[in-house]
Amino acid sequence: MGGAEPEKAAPRRFPAVLRKRAASFGYAFRGVGAALRTEVHLWFHAAATVVVIGLGLYCGLERWEWAAVALSVGAVWCAELVNTAVEAVVNLVSPDYHPLAGRAKDVAAGAVLVMALAALAVGLLVFGPRLWAWAVDA
Ligand SMILES: Nc1ncnc2c1ncn2[C@@H]1O[C@H](COP(=O)(O)OP(=O)(O)OP(=O)(O)O)[C@@H](O)[C@H]1O
Known about the structure:
- There is one protein chain.
- By secondary structure, this protein is mainly alpha-helical.
- The protein has one domain (40-137): Helix Hairpins, CATH 1.10.287.
- It is built from 4 helices and no strands.
- The chain has helices at 13-38, 41-59, 63-93, 99-137.
- Helix 2 runs antiparallel to helix 3 (63-93) and helix 3 packs antiparallel against helix 4.
- The termini are far apart.
- The model has no long low-confidence stretch (mean pLDDT 91).
- The structure holds adenosine-5'-triphosphate.
- Adenosine-5'-triphosphate binds next to helix 4.
- Its cofactor is Mg(2+).
- One of its GO terms (molecular function) is kinase activity.
């Protein structure tokens, strides 16, 4: 009766923020999983990634070489995932033929091509001399 209301405890925002971040990670992993399920050529990238890591371990790469290889592999995956996302959005908004839809898909595919060529250059620079030396010695 007229007494002061007991103060409500302030909402504990920090754990909520953490939960939201964790959920975002979950969505991101779900996205990678969905892309892997729907895009067959990502399996080629997965196989290539395993081969490159195996070759790197076998060759005993230097630390900086691992950095270059990791960045290249990650960048190609990143370009492929963005390309997959662009394709999905284009298919959603323009299921019928439209020159702009085609251009968007072509440009996204071009981004993958550019990154794949750059990764190939890194691969040749890092592994090329070793493979050449083995071929000559054999
Ligand atoms: N809605 C569209 N309008 C115009 N051109 C399109 C459209 N959809 C696709 N294209 C053209 O066809 C090409 C291939 O499209 P598609 O959706 O089959 O891509 P993709 O790279 O073969 O993808 P994936 O094989 O991964 O499904 C595009 O790069 C684009 O030139």
